[in-house]
Amino acid sequence: MSGHSKWSTIKHKKGAADAKRGKLFTKLIKEIVIAAKGGADIENNAKLRTAVLKARAANMPKDNIDKAIKKGAGETGANDYVELIYEGYAPGGVGLIIETLSDNKNRTAANVKSILTKAGGQLATTGAVSYQFKRMGVAIFSKEQVNAEELEELAIEIGAEDVIIEEESIEVTIEPNQFGSFLDALETAKIPVLNAEITMISDQKVSLDKEKTLKVLNLIERLEDDDDVQTVSSNLEIDSQMDLS
């Protein structure tokens, strides 16, 4: 999603955030476990560093983070999670990339297909959607909480590809291999971030009317509510003036 699309989505889901805090921790722990397969040293494992910084930003207790790292590194028993990526379409032809971590491939595939079908969407063959996307680090900030000039200077210094300043929000897009360094810099500068993730973004946008936009957002929310789904990326374009209430 574009900057204002992502910001609009965050505002749309904000009301249920507290109720989903436990589920968020579960997803972050799984992300740390998978990342730690590449080594338990966060200084030499960029993927793990990013996952840990996201967990810290969500105020996850240090003990939970440490346990997840040890599990992923094989220090505390088996780690059966595998990464599975599904491609699909939401109503209106919106492309979806659904990234999951699962210990049961059949269950995950069945759940994703069921959620899509019930909402009027469908699974797509591998490559049918993903060719429109590229993987990037994306961080979203509230303009009320940050100094826009300071943030922009920091982002450019780290090597951000793009900084989009909207009426209410700021979005920074940066290459994945630089994302961990950017999050480190934010933490050092005590700059609060609303949302930070390595995700798939697309230049081929799809714009819909309010009714269809809400249907797509609700579908994405239902997908993200599934325990196995880590993140859902789409090429939905949302006008910053659209009232999603």
Automatic annotation (TrEMBL):
It comes from the Bacteria. GO terms for biological process: regulation of DNA-templated transcription. It is found in: Cytoplasm. Residues 81-236 form the TACO1/YebC-like second and third domain. InterPro entries: Integrase-like_N, TACO1_YebC-like_2nd/3rd_dom, TACO1_YebC_N, Transcrip_reg_TACO1-like, Transcrip_reg_TACO1-like_dom3, YebC-like. The keyword Transcription applies. GO terms for molecular function: DNA binding. HAMAP family: Transcrip_reg_TACO1. Belongs to the TACO1 family. This is Probable transcriptional regulatory protein HCT14_04670. It comes from Entomospira entomophila.
